[in-house]
User: Fold this.
Amino acid sequence: MTTDTPTRRAAVIGLGSMGSGMAGSLLRAGFSVVACDVNPEAVARFEAAGGRGAPNPAEAARDADVVVSVVVNAAQTEAVLFGEAGAAAAMPGGAVFVSSATMDPAVARTLAARLEATGRHFLDAPMSGGAARAADGGLTFLASGSAAAFAKARPALDAMAGTLYELGDAAGQGAAFKMINQLLAGVHIAAACEAMAFAAKQGLDLRRVYEVITKSAGNSWMFENRVPHILDADYSPKSAVDIFVKDLGIVQDMARVEKYPVPVAAAALQMFLMASGAGMGRDDDASVARLYAQVSGATLPGKA
Assistant:
């Protein structure tokens, strides 16, 4: 005798480049997915793909076993949970909130404590991998939380993740790992942009530079991933400058509390701040190379 497997129910809050891919991965895995976003066009695209839209986080979360929040920062996460029409009060008892925003670990711990006091679970689960991996279910999650939170979230994580790191039994540990990643990522992007603008200043063939460096010890994942944006003069935002203004700013705040010096990250933050101040904040983070070109007179491909 067989019984039907009950439909798994998920909510996704935020349908940007990452959230839309994650919602699509959940749909393909057989979840019933309700999603909301401040952009009605994003919701319409999701509905056309087979999901259901909701006007706010509370309506999206009302019947969900797992609520996946894919917003930009801690303030937005708090609003999703506890703001007007927030998800926290609407979530069923025992449901899990999967927080994927990059944030200060101390804030993740505070949000987790507030939600867990209501009888719901909180999984601190920032992710890495970019929009393409989000779309194909191949993200890396840096997660921490209680055993119950992991158990409740695991089917959804299996649908969205290529790699899942279980990094501790309390919220904040996943966030801390993510900030180490973001420190390195921001520094590597700034260094790659500095190097390519410097190569342009030397009059080098930049495609040849890319070919040589990606086969040499100076390569990094960020060099290999971001430099093609420079070569193609394509600064449409795969990941925006302002993301690293935020994330390296969090690194600075954490380091200041610990009285720990982070001079290399601080220098990288200044480059992202200058690029943002020059009007490139919403452009691709490889735009730091454009800033170097502007101040040095180097010529990059296309319009700098």
